[in-house]
């Protein structure tokens, strides 16, 4: 008979000794098992701080839901065991699930609690992988995620586990943008789990989005508002929030009234650690690549991009960027330089490939010790309407621009991009279609895309003959 448990203690105290103490080698160097122990200790401590309200400002959603959790023992046990099988060979999530089932049973957890802990260990990377790599406006993304999560309790537990796991990696890994992505996924999944989305097909959701924008723009004349809303395809209404749509509308209205050929607007959010830059211009092939090149010239990092085109051929492209320290851009002069870089690039006054090529040589020399094998993954199952391409390689100046340029030369149109960097590794995800607006189904074309993208991201110090074209 399993012994009754009284863990974690009430009131909870921050872990500081005993089972949490990790031995090192006396010189500050931890062996792999000890490193996992340090990470686990940090993660448990972060959950305790969330529970005590000490991180309410950094993690408002986790602070809000932590006391809604039905079993704090399940939460703490899942955090304690999430990396228990790391370093054992194989998938540590799968192996950890088996350990969790055995250990929870021995510690007196009920069958339901044991199943919950084991699931959390098995799926502890699910939320971050979905939030950081997938298009959250794609209904299939949410449906697939909810199909695995299945309950509001699992969703609450998984969010707090994910937050603690990421923050426990070390300083500089967490930022406001990651927090915003996780919150977006949580709210969309919560809505789906609650049944609020049942019966709401695309047409109903488009109509609701238009009505929401009309409420925000209530001072606009009716005919002007209708003319604006009719300019967009349905995808725009399904993929962009009302606040951003209202911002777009005001920028577009001002540009059209003054007959500007190009409008560039920016806004920053320090808490979310992001700066949005809107480019409103006549659409043309390669526009995404050129803007990505301008961002590289301005030395800012793209973390997200959404591409929209109106019925009358105007591009409404929104990029979310961060400074080199993963913060929002706050210096007015820095923002002016960013806008100038985009304007000059689109006017043909700056050639990004030439500027970036000069930086690559020095960067390659400084980072040649880092080896990251290039990998390109092509998936037609993630989205119903897009082919999803994931590009992995060693990060360097102009990485995104080179990928975008290769996609342009492959006659692929980018609709959404998600950009992430893990140390020296860049992991960029692109939602693409062919020139006819269709997914890419031909296996032979998949292989050609894969080869061309690997060629584009291979580290090299050479300058290319096409530098003058970008």
Tell me what you see in this structure.
The chain has 470 residues and is of the alpha+beta class. The chain folds into 2 domains: 177 residues, no CATH class; 209 residues, ACT domain (Alpha-Beta Plaits), CATH 3.30.70.260. The protein is 49% helix and 14% strand. The chain is built from 18 helices and 8 strands. It has an 8-stranded antiparallel sheet, sandwiched between helices. A hairpin with a 7-residue loop joins strand 3 and strand 4. Helix 3 crosses helix 5. 36% of the residues are buried. The C terminus is likely disordered.
Descriptive keywords:
470 residues, Alpha-Beta Plaits, single chain, alpha+beta
Structural class call reads alpha+beta
Rg on CA atoms, Å: 24 Å
Structural domain tally: 2
The number of distinct helices, counting runs of at least 4 residues, comes to: 18
In CATH, the topology of the largest domain is named Alpha-Beta Plaits
The CATH first-level class of the largest domain comes to: Alpha Beta
Largest sheet report: 8 strands, antiparallel
Task: Please list the strands of the largest sheet in the order they lie side by side.
Answer: 1-2-4-3-7-8-6-5
Helix percent reads 40-55%
Order of helices and strands: HHHHHHHHHHHHHEEHEEHHEEHEEH
Low-confidence stretches: 9-31, 461-470
Shape: globular
Instruction: Tell me what the CATH architecture of the largest domain is.
Output: 2-Layer Sandwich
What does the average pLDDT come to? 86
Number of separate strands: 8
N- and C-termini, Cα separation: 71 Å
Q: Beta-sheet strand percentage?
A: 5-15%
């Amino acid at each position: 008979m399993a012994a009754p448990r009284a863990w974690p203690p009430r009131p909870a105290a921050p872990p500081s000794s005993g089972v949490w103490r990790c031995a090192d080698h006396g010189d500050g160097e931890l062996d792999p098992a000890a490193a996992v122990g340090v990470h686990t200790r940090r993660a448990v401590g972060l959950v305790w701080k969330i529970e005590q309200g000490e991180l309410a400002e950094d993690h408002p959603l986790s602070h809000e839901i932590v006391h809604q959790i039905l079993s704090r023992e399940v939460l703490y046990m899942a955090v304690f065991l999430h990396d228990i099988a790391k370093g054992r060979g194989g998938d540590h999530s799968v192996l950890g699930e088996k350990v969790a089932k055995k250990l929870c049973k021995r510690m007196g957890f009920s069958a339901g609690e044991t199943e919950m802990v084991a699931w959390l260990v098995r799926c502890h990377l699910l939320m971050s992988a979905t939030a950081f790599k997938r298009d959250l406006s794609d209904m299939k993304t949410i449906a697939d995620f909810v199909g695995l999560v299945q309950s509001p309790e699992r969703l609450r537990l998984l969010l707090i586990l994910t937050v603690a796991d990421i923050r426990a990696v070390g300083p500089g890994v967490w930022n406001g943008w990651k927090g915003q992505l996780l919150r977006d996924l949580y709210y969309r999944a919560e809505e789906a789990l609650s049944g609020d989305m049942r019966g709401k097909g695309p047409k109903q959701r488009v109509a609701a989005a238009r009505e929401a924008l009309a409420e925000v723009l209530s001072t606009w004349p009716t005919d002007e508002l209708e003319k604006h809303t009719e300019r967009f395809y349905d995808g725009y209404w399904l993929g962009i929030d009302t606040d951003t749509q209202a911002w777009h509308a005001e920028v577009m209205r001002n540009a059209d009234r003054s007959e500007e050929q190009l409008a560039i607007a920016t806004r920053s959010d320090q808490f979310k650690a992001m700066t949005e830059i809107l480019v409103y211009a006549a659409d043309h092939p390669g526009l995404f690549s050129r803007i990505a090149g301008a961002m590289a010239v301005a030395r800012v990092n793209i973390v997200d991009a959404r591409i929209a085109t109106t019925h009358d051929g105007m591009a409404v492209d929104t990029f979310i960027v961060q400074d080199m320290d993963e913060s929002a851009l706050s210096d007015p002069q820095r923002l002016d330089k960013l806008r100038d870089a985009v304007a000059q690039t689109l006017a043909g006054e700056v050639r990004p490939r030439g500027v970036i090529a000069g930086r690559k040589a020095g960067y390659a020399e400084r980072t040649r010790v880092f080896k990251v094998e290039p990998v390109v993954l092509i998936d037609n199952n993630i989205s119903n309407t897009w082919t999803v391409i994931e590009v992995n390689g060693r990060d360097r100046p102009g990485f995104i621009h080179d990928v975008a340029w290769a996609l342009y030369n492959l006659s692929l149109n980018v609709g959404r991009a998600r950009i992430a960097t893990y140390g020296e590794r860049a992991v960029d995800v692109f939602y693409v279609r062919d020139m006819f607006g269709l997914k890419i189904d031909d296996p032979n074309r998949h292989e050609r895309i894969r080869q061309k993208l690997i060629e584009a991201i291979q580290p090299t110090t050479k300058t290319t003959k096409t530098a003058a074209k970008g």
